[in-house]
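Thread: quick sanity check before group meeting

JM: Hey all, I'm pulling together slides for Thursday and realized we never actually wrote out the predicted structure for the chain we discussed last week. Dropping the sequence here so it's in one place. If anyone has concerns about the input, flag it before I start.
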Amino acid sequence: MRSPIRRSKKIGLTQGGRVWNGKPSEKWSRLFPQNTWQKLSNETDSLRIITENPSKNYFHPCSSNQILSVINRLPESLTQDIRAIVLRRTPKTDEKLIIEAWRRFQCIILNSFPKNLKMIWPEKPPARIIKHMNPWCDCWSNENGAWTLQWTHKIIRRYYLYHLLLHEIGHINDFIHSKQKMREGFAENFALEWAKKLGQL
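JM (edit): ok, ran it. Output follows.
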């Protein structure tokens, strides 16, 4: 006689996810499956700003109007290729790696941010991370080996608008570099240069 457990098609599935090669794997967002970025990028309509529910413990630091205000201050030649800006619910993988933003094709993705306004590292962040953050927020603390960077609403909004957004616009305007390190260097310099021009540094 077969065991009823053996008949269950749910054996091995994770809650809200799936198993891949014996390991639990997070599902793609229903609103933004993997090929959505390419579809959005191929559209010829004007810039779209899309907002996803940030989840209970997260929020979006900046609004659509604030994003458009920054974009309108940039030369049109730098923004004409942006097809969509997505205020996204932070995926678990990005949360774990402390990734705040991405560029996918001609789309800019800005992840939501914790409501407690904290970035937490289990150990001291590399010097490059500290150097990257300090122009925007330098309120570091160390407790029991864990390092925390404490933000305020005003500062995190400024960081999103005048660094993360500009950094990803830099990626969209990089037509030269193919190596990841050089691409990141170009986008970082682009963001810092325009933050200074816009009076934020």
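AS: nice. The mean pLDDT is 84. The two ends are 73 Å apart (CA to CA).
JM: adding both to the slides.
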